[in-house]
Amino acid sequence: MSKFLILTIIADDKPGIVETIAATIADQGGNWLESRMSHMAGKFAGILRISIAEEEANSLRIRLSQLATQGISIGVEVSAEAGDSIATKDLTLNLVGNDRPGIVKEVSQALANMGVNVLELTTNCESAPMSADLLFKTEAHLRVPKGFDADALTDALEAISNDLMVEINLD
User: Fold this and answer.
1) Is 137 helix (H, G, I), strand (E, B) or coil?
2) What global pTM score does this model have?
3) C-alpha distances in angstroms, 31 versus 6, 8, 96, 141, 149?
4) Where are the alpha helices (H) located in 28-117, listed in sequence order?
5) For the ACT domain, which residue ranges apply (predicted)?
6) What CATH homologous superfamily does 88-170 map to?
């Protein structure tokens, strides 16, 4: 029987990190299913989902923990693979506005208050084209119940600040 594991990775960025992790997983008979990886401020970070035979899972945990000697820190959690029994739909949110402290808190609070599940969140700040002001930009992939009122979400997000531009699309 297969076991599904979620791995979280952090390391100083350098060539070969992904290969080292992939080889360790493959050597134990694991199967790399999906991942998201990124470089930021000199660090490499990632999250991935793998499947592995239940009898090999503990050996893999040990082998992954040994990668700490190479500066690769890996957390391992068991993933429940139970299907979601609630009918849902996915949305993409794009938001742009003037940056300020607390904006991520305000946006995430509005999403949580409406029962929205954040599947993926990307944020960045960049200079506005006509000024030195910083613009906050986010793209989020969201999961909501069928019948969810996307217009109400747009209203809730736009109520945070009159300078926020909100676009929500059905995936």
Assistant:
1) strand
2) 0.77
3) 12, 16, 38, 25, 38
4) 57-65, 103-113
5) 6-81, 92-171
6) ACT domain (3.30.70.260)
**Could you confirm whether domain 2-78 is CATH 3.30.70.260?**
yes
Q: How many residues does the chain have?
A: 171
**Structural domain boundaries of the chain?**
2-78, 88-170
If you ran DSSP here, which 8-state letter would residue 103 be given? H
User: Residue 130, Cβ neighbours under 10 Å: how many?
Assistant: 6
Buried b (16+ CB within 10 A) or exposed e, 69-88: eeebebeeeeeeeeeeeeee
Q: Is 99 exposed, middle or buried (0-12, 13-18, 19+ CB in 10 A)?
A: middle
What residue has token string 């998201």? 36
* Rounded distance between C-alpha atoms, residue 43 and residue 57, angstroms: 27
For the stretch 48-95, pLDDT in tens is: 999 999 999 999 999 999 999 999 999 999 997 655 557 899 999 999
Using CA atoms of 102, 36, 46, 44 in order, give the dihedral in degrees to the nearest 10: -80
DSSP lists the bridge partners of residue 125 as: 136
Q: What does the alpha-carbon distance between residue 98 and residue 106 come to, in Å, rounded to a whole number? A: 13
The two domains 2-78 and 88-170 share their CATH topology (first three levels equal): yes
- Residues in a beta bridge with 41: none
Residue 7 has pLDDT above 80, yes or no: yes
Phi first, then psi: give them for residue 32, nearest 5 degrees: -75, 115
